[in-house]
């Protein structure tokens, strides 16, 4: 499990809570090793975790 998924689960409170917020089964979330591309924006919306943290391989952080 990557750090972005861990952050989303922590923000949601649990795997079941994240699944419930997304309207999917928790079995679907159990299968994830990282946030699927098609779910990034929705996970960001329900957890408040920035998409750059959820999937840094797809979203480049801007220099500080």
Would you summarize the structure shown here?
Helices cover 55% and strands 0% of the residues.
CATH class: Mainly Alpha
How many helices does DSSP assign?
5
Number of strands: 0
Strand coverage percent? under 5%
- Broad shape: globular
Give the CATH H-level superfamily: lambda repressor-like DNA-binding domains
Amount of helix = 40-55%
Radius of gyration based on Cα positions: 11 Å
Biggest sheet layout: none
The overall pLDDT, averaged over residues, is: 94
Structural class: mainly alpha
What does this structure look like?
This protein is mainly α and 64 residues long. It is built from five helices and no strands. Helix 1 (3-12) crosses helix 4 (40-47). The N and C termini lie far apart (27 Å). It has one domain (3-54): 434 Repressor (Amino-terminal Domain) (Orthogonal Bundle).
Topology:
Elements lengths: L2 H10 L2 H8 L3 H5 L9 H8 L3 H4 L10
Helix pairs in contact: 1-4
């Amino acid at each position: 499990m990557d750090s972005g998924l861990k952050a989303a689960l922590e923000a949601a409170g649990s795997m079941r809570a994240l699944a419930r917020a997304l309207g999917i089964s928790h079995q679907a979330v159990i299968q994830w090793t990282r946030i699927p591309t098609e779910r990034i924006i929705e996970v960001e919306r329900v957890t408040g975790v920035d998409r750059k943290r959820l999937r840094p391989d797809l979203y480049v952080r801007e220099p500080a």
